[in-house]
## 1
Amino acid sequence: MSDAIFRADPPEARRMVMLDGVALIFHRPSGLTHIVAPPAPQILEALGEGDASPDTLLERLQRDYDFGAADDLAAALDARLAELETAGLVWRP
Amino acid sequence: MSDARPLVRALTDPASTGDLDPAGWTALIAMARAEQLMGTLAHRLDGLDVPDAVARICADARLSIDHGRRQALWEAEMARRVLAPLGEPVVLLKGTAYVAAGLSAGVGRSIGDLDILVRREALDAVERALIAQGGWEWVKEDEYDDAYYRDHMHELPPLIHKDRDRMIDVHHTVLPLTAKPMPDAAAMIEESEALDDGLRILSPPDMICHAAAHLFADGDLAGGLRNLWDIDRLLRDFDERDGFWAALGERADRHQLAKPVACALRLAETLYETPVDGDVAGKSRAGDALYVRRLLARDDWGGETRKGLRLAFYIRSHWLRMPPLMLARHLWTKWRGKAHHDS
Amino acid sequence: MRHEFRVQVGPAAFRIGSDWRQPLDQMAALYNGYPTPEIPDFTVRLFARRFWRRFLRPSVMIGGDYMLPDAAPLSLAHGMLGAEMGMNLQMALGQRRYLLLHASAVERDGKALLMTGESGAGKSTLSALLGERGWRFMGDEFALVDLENGAIHPFPRLVSLKNEAISLFEDSVDASRLGPLMRDTPKGDIRHLRPPDDAVEKMHEPAHPALLLFPRFGHAPDIREIGQAEVFVRLTQASTNYVMLGEVGFDTLSRLVTTIPSRAVDYPDTESAVDSVERLWAELAA
């Protein structure tokens, strides 16, 4: 998936409430509520800078957050991106 | 015996509701709900002075419609994302098409499943993509229904999305393969028009042809008042366009749908005072009155009336769709299934 | 329809039509004193599938503005249950003005206690019991959350007592508050109970929620905290119109979840449940 480019809706398309360390996201275009775990909210925020490949996203996340080991983060990123794509929160333009 | 004429009158001339008493309003609302026209009615009554209880019910209906509209457009968008890599034309049909294109027929309309039309040659690829990448899966049907859909109908067995619980019907033609008229689905796709996001809608004449085919061929005229209202609103949108009526006549012939289109036009004119072209609509026929009686078969409680007439239309609609032997087999299987459920 | 009965329950107005007189007479007796609306929000129909089934082995079909396919018919003796099921269905599928929670509610000192859980968890019986013991009964089936201020609006329909719960009330309440005993319905034995008078008189008085409980009947006594995210998810599952309401539903539910405490309560019998409720209320809400 590394050569895919991902896009997300602008932040105003979402409402987010943090509960017990997970994010409840109300997505306005679909009217659907999603419950996502980190780093999903951070991915959405990082996509606010513009469309990005997983590699670019990884750089943005490492720049802004301290997630610990980079290998784990890359795996978590792929998993969360897949979930976000299924949920319709990110897509490939 | 009461019928759905008050609903037709309120939709056609909303100001006429000014003389309704509480019982009249109560009946009107029950009929509108039963005919899936409450959202439409609420929009038609917008801005008029209605009793408080009615205003609240209309506000509820508008909320439902807004929700349904958002959901329908989202399902279309999710299908678009999954199917875009195929590079195939994807034509939205019915309610989703009307709201996506901003047509009057979409205002206040309740929308059920997502219906799309694709090229027959693309059917397998579309099905694979929806299931493999999109998260849709087969609705668990018994084997007979499944085989029936594949062999004889104009769509895949319905798929349902495993998270969103919404159905998609993928069509490759407009009527069942067993039906006598053979609309030219390839030509419909050819002539379809692109929306901004790349999804497509039928051309205006084809949209009327499809709506008319749908009105008569799909079931026993159930939901007929709503389907006919679609046709009324579409015709009012298209009426002024250059060459529309001539094109409609041509396309109806091409799709072997001249009769149903003509009849739909006459019924819309009779019930909703729709502006229609006399050449396409043709002269009124003796049978028209029967259709009107069937379409209005609804009482003050929203209940079905004229059971015999309904049954006649039901049998007739299946007769049109299938050769007789196949019909017998189909009905037998349905009855057997039903009897099993009842016991 | 040959017979008609109208009733207002809290903010929702119903008309029930029936091919038979009996179920509506039974309802009119138990709903005596409830307001009669002029233009109802919802229509429910009890009808015979075939004309002759009005008379011969009458079998009651349930219809209405909002319906589910394949609703099985009931015998005429269970007709009133059919009407109540029809009314519930209209609320579940047609309610748009409030966030509808499948929960029971009682009020004390102007504050509401919500109890939710799966069918058979005892929330209905518990609310009815508390209604006889100093609390104001607000509803045993649906709690209606105000979309603007989060208050709970009552929906004090008849309580539908099931099986063992029936005997808890038969000896202690006035016989005029009890409907006919309906044996062997699809849900077992059912007997309807008219809510206490104050519940009917105050059916238009909302109360702000102060505590949310998830009771579970038939387990050793236990009380557990539940995370807010889990509470949120469980309440979306306990709501039939959360998705329909869109963003306002999200706002309403997230406010409810983040502003009131919640606990899971296991109990072996109703007396123990009442004790737990009183204790938790004193500790967390009073």
## 2
Amino acid sequence: MDKIYAHPKSLRDVSTHYCPGCGHGLAHRLITEVVDELGIREKVIGVAPVGCAVVAYEYWDFDCSEAAHGRALAVATGIKRVRPENIVFTYQGDGDLAAIGTNETIHAANRGENLSVFFINNAVYGMTGGQMAPTTLLNQKTSTTPDGRCAQLQGFPLKISEMLALLPGVKYIERVSLHSPQEIIKTKKAMKKALINQMEGIGFSLVEILSPCPTYWGLSPKPALDWIKNTMVKEFPLGVIK
Amino acid sequence: MDSEKRQKESRVKLLITGNEAIAESAIQAGCRFYAGYPITPQNELTAYMAHHMQDRGGVFIQAEAETAAINMVYGASAAGARAMTSSSSPGISLKQEGISYLAGAELPSVIVNIMRGGPGLGNIAPAQSDYFQATRSGGHGDYHCLVLAPSTVQECYDLTALAFELSDKYRVPAIILGDGMLGQMMEPIVVTKFRAPSLKQSNKPWALTGCKDRKANVVKSFYLKEGDLEKFNLKLQSKYQKIQREEERWEELFLNDVKIVLVAYGSMARIAKGAVKALREKGKKVGLIRPISLWPFPKKAFAKIRKQYLVIEMSYGQMLEDVQLAVNGQAGIEFLGRSGGGVPSEAEIIAKVNKIYHG
Amino acid sequence: MPEIAINKDKCKGCFLCVSVCPQGFIIAEDELNIRGIKPVKFKPGGKCTGCAMCALICPDCCIEVYR
């Protein structure tokens, strides 16, 4: 009998610290599957964010750097410019990429850095205890929007992928989701494309991944997936943005 | 210039500014990555890098912000390259987060601060009011940067290369602390050809290069498990103690027969030297200690002289505290300082010395 | 016949695999695992089709599929 679904080689065989049903574990695994399939484990350098995924390097079995909160794309720029032959990606949450690191994000994209970005959008700050993120939906309750996000006070969910798509330096942006096996397959395809783009020297590629945070959405894992499918994708429509 | 030709011209004289001397030295020392952001009075340095880095095998990026520049340096250093950024006081404040991370991740790097007046936006006049920030760990956490303070354009050149050497040796960030006067002043310098390791030859087994034929490397400063951070911090501390033992640097003048010892660094020391010379001509027994390394502070220089000191700074007394610690109550200390655009003049120094001398 | 292997001690009991198994053959275990939660198990006598949807959605990489 053949093993048709096995533990990826680039993923360490350890338990993660993530909550049950958290999308980070899935996104981590998909990245390692793609890295293995492309045969680039010995060339890849990952940049982990500050946020729940800060210790991603405990799970990925390839070279990694930590970056200060929001600075992943500056760090990745430094690495890639020094070692253009390596494959460099960042893995960043919504707070990291679209709040504290917006400047680094926009300018790395605008310079057209030949990097791959995996952007986890779960509409909340997980590591610090469920505060409002730039991508928190209107009316969504968080620990810092106890009555729900209000446009007048807190502004609107930030669609950074659409903003970035306006920049000529950006070559590929797709928004995908982890809410079903079908969407997971699409997510993996998009990740692969983002890495292949870099290998071929095409340029800045970003995959925005709608990802469940059952703990801070106050939902069980399955209803959390349903919330993405029924609610979140209305604000953040799936598909190729650029 | 091709490399062969440069090999032949291993000793060249140049007339350049302090800012440019730092930049040229960095390139000679094998700096392969520079990121900067415009701020006066260090713009000549960034411009020099923009002109020369690419042609000479390096990378130049005008970053979107100081925070980005310092984190690009973090990435380049993590990838094993000698990397540098430069700025002036307000910009250096912005870089402090990144410097703390560089220290925490033990990444070699050179940070140039061509100081100007503060606090806040201050002004663009030369100042020495970032001494505390540079020597006391300007960002969060228990760390130190190696701090070197050039006093001439030649020293801008020599100490920058040394900063790269020491930074690699100890895996600590190194700061070149100059000021607007030194950065923009032109002097002739002798350029020496350094033998910088190439990216491939550099001995950095911890660097991120892709995990071919070895275990995966991780560059990080996060230690969540109980006891781990304390253990790491103790390792840093023992490294700092070694640096304190081995890397004190200073210049001294006329300390054999002296009644009053002036203490000044950087541009201020140039003026102090003028005052010492003038006072000696009048028969006054005046000498000078010029700290070259500000961290580690050259305590040894003060151990042998228990006389009267006069600390002179372009600040209201920052290095003064290190002199007080070094002297430890065993000698008198007077202070002369101005900041915010004011620079103590030779005449002011002479007047102050005469007052102490006869007081 | 296709089958799945579940690493029960890594399982965090999110039951996302339960929600996607088209046959409904993944169910809760009766015993607690080393984490102190009830992991999933394959229903005794169930016939796995080897679709691998469970493995695909498992956030903790606990499931391997053989066909």
## 3
Amino acid sequence: QTQGRFGVEISDPVEKEKRVNELVQYMLIMDQKKIPIKKRDINRVILKGQNRAFNGVMEEAAEKLLEVYGFKIIELQDKLKDSYILVNNLELNESQKKLINTNQKDNAEMGLVFVILGMIFMNQNVIHEDEMWHALKKLGIFQDDLHSTFGNVKNLIMKEFVRKGYLRTELNTSTDPPTNDIYWGQRAEHEITKRNMLSMVCDINETQPSDWTYQMQLVMQEDQGSQQ
Amino acid sequence: GKKKAQALKTDFLRFNAADFCDKVRIKVSNGISKKENYGLSHDDWVKLGRTITPFFRSTPVLNFMCGAFQRDVVPKKKRTV
Amino acid sequence: MEVFGDGHRLFIQSMMSRGMMNISEVKEVISECGLDVETEFKDKVVKFVRLINQHIGPINLEIRKGLEEENGQPYYILANTAETSISRLSSTYSPNELELFKKLIESIVENEDGKIGSLAAMNLTDKLEKKIGKEEAENFFNRLEDDRWIRKNTNGKISLSVRSIVELDQYIKDVYPDYVKFCSLCTKLCLQGRGCENCGAKFHIRCSNVFFNKQGSNKTCPEPNCRAPWGQVVIH
Ligand SMILES: [Zn+2]
Ligand SMILES: [Zn+2]
């Protein structure tokens, strides 16, 4: 009976086309905040209760986003199920990448995202919150202080980066008081390859990727996964 | 599987997060920021971001003004030239 | 016939990230898309942009061409063309910041010279229902300049950039019909420009320069019904 429930199309093609275009526009606007876009909100704002048409409209919107803008819609999993993010699908060379500019605020924040993701990856995919804050002191970041560039940096890392899907936290109750373990979030998994992460980290600490056996294994696994 | 696990044990490089951040600071600030508490300047963070962002598959975002806000009804006035 | 491909997608993405591009930036992007820009560039750009517009039109986007009022430089702008309940979900700026921007447009449009001093701009915060701190307002004005909605000239005066003028063209005409003036030469909206003392007509600096150059030494007002001797009076 699920066939009937999820397979309903909007019968009027003009009406469907309108919803598809609205959804494309909605996805681009919601992507401004980089917070995963919820299926519930799409149903409410775009389909206005015609929830059963979701799959059909979403499929066509995804095609347009890919065809016209080079953006791929990714459906998230686990706790973020029923929400979506956009990632860039264009394969660009170095000089082409330079044609896409980002503003200062976003650049600075991505710098911080990179440092944290790098630490997590190199630390065998997880870092304890305390260890992260201890390390970030070397970069002038203190968890309880306002930062001249990032403002409330504790909120930025533990709330904003988590909301955007760059980080995922898990409360570790084996410590007293309980502290957070920090992992790569699902957006990070889709936006950056482990190979690129490893080579950027190696560029900074002046080592070779092959020096890092565990991380290289993960890179190989990822390569095999993407070939399938 | 087992061989890989053994290779892991013989791995002589240990990652240290604090050392890594120290190296980030030195690399990005070209060694100018010597005292660790100084950290990175605003421009350094932007520079770091600019260097690494191309490796991320992030999407550029749409930014517009027309249609971002509601129109007000402005009381009609005659221009006094 | 030209086929829509990765080059067009790259152009759209580059446009999204910058908002506007001058001709040499357009050239750079298009040549990165694999097009030979050395021959018949104008023709190629027109076709390239037309094809993109066919694809982005359905979601109310359009790449438009416009001239910067102050220096007459041409730019391509990615403009949102419709005001809908979905477009109002945009969150680049907070609702209160957008209110401040509206007040900024209002005072620029109402000023004869199309500019407003930085102090006067800061004082606009007093007109807001929900208050914005001075520092916050200053950061916002900097962001507006960074995002190329406004320009600050060397005297610190703020004017609307070509990006604002092109995208908000209809908005400004609709909301401020009693204040807007149109350039008598190109018939487009004119905020900054020269005015005729005799008839009050307004002209873009670039448009009038072109006109006067053709006229030679006996300069008269470009307005056909006026033709008063031009006294080199500049309204700003
Ligand atoms: Zn004109
Ligand atoms: Zn005249």
## 4
Amino acid sequence: MKPHRLTFAFQLTVTLLACAFLMVPAGASILAGFTVNYFRGVSSGLTLKWIGEVLALYSDTIALSIAIALGTLGVTLLIGVPAAWALARRPSRLTRLVEEVVTLPVAIPGLALALALILAYGGIREFRMSPLFILTGHVLYTLPFMLRAVMAVLAAVDVRTLEEGAASLGASPLQRFFHVVVPNARGGILAGALMVVTLSIGEFNLTWMLHTPLTKTLPVGLADSYASMRLEIASAYTLVFFVMIVPLLVALQLFGRTVQGAAR
Amino acid sequence: MNRGAAITVASCGKTFADGTRALSPLDLDVRAGETLVLLGPSGCGKTTLLRLIAGLEAPDAGGHIRFDGADVTALPIEKRNVGMVFQSYALFPNMSVIDNVAYGLRVRGMAQAARRAQAAGVLEMMRIGALAQRRIDQLSGGQRQRVALARALAVEPRVILLDEPLTALDAALREHLRGEIDALLKRLAITAIYVTHDQAEALALGDRIVVMRNGAIAQVGTPRDVYFRPADDFVADFVGVTNRLTGTLKNGRFETAAGVVPLPQDLVPPAAPSGPGAVRLLFRPEAARLASPADTPLVFEVVQVEFQGARQKVTLKDPAGARILVEAPADGLLVPGAAVGLILDPARISLA
Amino acid sequence: MHSADRLARLFLLPLFLFVAAFFLLPMVRLVGVAGSGPNGLAEYLAILTNPRHLATLLATLALSAAVTAATLAIGTVVALFLARNRFVGRPLLVSLLTLPLAFPGVVVGFMVILLAGRQGLLSSLSMGLGMGRWVFAYSMAGLFAGYVYFSLPRVLVTLMAAVEKLDPALEEAARSLGASRAQVMRDVTLPGIAPALMASGAIAFATAMGAFGTAFTLATRIDVLAMTIYTEFTLNANFATAAALSIALGLITWMVLALTRNFAGSGVAAAG
């Protein structure tokens, strides 16, 4: 059905405005990161100085964020993929309940989760001071996304029949898992992995509460810079963050359907 | 290849976790080397019975399954050495054709070169050797069907189980592959259990047919038994169209509203005809021949004619209003309302 | 398939252990701490009895409702437009609109500062037009803009998928029966995407209720629930109140999502 001309114009306007609303500040931030003096505008000249300062000041947060994201990915893969198969293979009221409980951390604000973690484990000093504390929070928060992504793809490819096929040929349960389940779930695993890394790198709500002066991640550093640095440095830092996260987001878009189905 | 196993199903029922009764406890003997077809409408329990024999489901307590006398009830499918062809084929999309076919040998610990050679041999036997390196999503439906069969046969199973293997294909291909499967099963002399809801497939393939209904066996017999001597109305209707005329027996003749049918000597009347009108004469559409009303004591009125090219389907009714369906060559021109005579082949009628 | 059952149980064990140790146990602890303050169990009701907390709760609810309504309205218009029209540059537009899908709250806050802060684009634009200086980043309005920014990409992805799944024959059937464009929209299109509207609306609402990063970046002075919890915990060291408020907040977001899922029938979850 072709829309009316006026309707069309209205829809187009709203769409372009929405796009501008989302993109113009991002563009301004990128520009500011390269501008000598943002207040005076681009006429003040372009520079890489701010990027350099950010790398000097904050490279440890960048490294820690990458390390935590990869660690989170490793743990969610290890725990999540086998569990997703176990939950998906025989849906019942019990598995629904387990799924519900396991996905609760997504429905509860990060602040509350972080508070609970601190109250329960804050007393264990070594744990509290180590990046593992943040990693634990990130796993808690991202695990449901990995579970859902893998479970969605397992349901979509009817992996049960494939397993039965492998079983009829003599494969043991463990052989079936590695020969048939994992290879045929790789789309979901990849989508889940991208989601986990993206979420972990950008996670702030939990991390702000869980971090210590020695365990600062990129978003924590960002918040610092927004509060205490000049706009150009904050922008350059944000730019660094974009450079890390945008490729992930683009990759996620390529797997959009799988993840959308899974992460909702 | 090895000769197939004889299979015994002893009082096997199946009730699912949600309480649905898929199968009432039943007994069945499958002879070594025969092709047994499980035939019935969807939901009749035929697939459940196949999955019990395969080891994909466990029977309710008290049920036992034996292969060549050895109890395999507690063995999961991977330890039963069966070959199975699934309705959806269940080919592994992450493996090439040859790796699919060699998979059963791989999990049995055979070295790569040996298992590839053996799998290639099976592919050659199925005349799809050229497909060996293809990915599964590059295959047509018929090719997938052949690969699935090759994969199941590659492990030299004692029994091959086929779950509606042709349902996913179009009609022409189905008929062609049916012939191939028939020839293959006969040549290998392997025990085969074949599930289908298609009576033509069942009649063409089966050494014996098990007709199932509501989780129970309605009749076991050769295709001819089942077709010409159906055990009851359900079997008669499920395995093709059956015409029924009601009447009485008198002096070796069957008398009905449309006239009289002479009966052959050897036709056994039903055990206890309870008074007039209690006997029914059963015949298939192709067991009747149209004739001039002057040439036969059995006369009907034409209701409807459906032209089908070489043949035509003719619906007739008798003076009492009962309708029957017959098939005739399409040469004679029939008009609704006209009177037409009918001659029944005495060898292909039965009484009930 | 007994052996597979055993493997499945083995595979579930790490998940159970992790969730028990790092989710269930801490949650129990949170509930315990909330009830162990000077006010005892009454602390749970503080969110209703303490006038300051109650005002914060109402303000947060109102803000979240407004964000949800605005996001859904914009999202529906844009989703219908993008799903029904094919033109050069459409894929790019879709990409740009969904790109900020996982921008964290802090970054979104910074985007709002760049848009409506003291050195923001709107500020210089309005100055240039001689209309005074528009600065609203550090207020409820800024938070509103930030949450819409945060939720719009998510809502769009869900709604576009829903519109594309609508069978065009339904709308054609309605038109063949004589329905006007407006009637088709009201009677066929919107009911068709209603589950997606509910699901994505619930996510937008829950996210706005619990989001912390944006508020933290914009100002610590805006009274929304997440900021109150943060201040009570870190600045006032008032653990019991912070815990009780967290539980209330968690219950609200979880209930909104669970209720919607019952109605809309699909998996719904908030995101940070």
